[in-house]
Amino acid sequence: MNSVDIIAMASLLQYLAFGAMVGQARGKFGVKAPAVTGSEPFERVYRVQMNTLELLVAFIPALYAAGRYWPAWAVAGVGFIYVVGRLVYRRAYISAPDSRGLGFVLSIGPIFVLVLAALVGALGLRTAG
What we know:
Layout lengths: L2 H27 L10 H30 L2 H24 L5 H22 L7
Helix pairs in contact: 1-2, 1-3, 2-3, 2-4, 3-4
């Protein structure tokens, strides 16, 4: 398994952990499925999971596409920032949703970098070296 695969699997494990947190929050705050509203603390945990899912749709393909054209260590490094960004986002959103900006930037920024890197590579604009 190369470093890009490790980051991809780490991001998926992170998402699954966030999903487990939603299950725990359902019990803690008394929100019975299929409800997703009714308790603001629960809704915060739920939104972290859902926002992470929304970003994974862009992150995983961008990570692998960029990995076709750029060194795995560089692509994995950008991906690592995404994973850390999701942790920062989770902590901020659960404790004080208005403070989630840094975590969001640390999550969306790497996605843009990976998409641009993949486009540069796919268009043949990357110079050798």
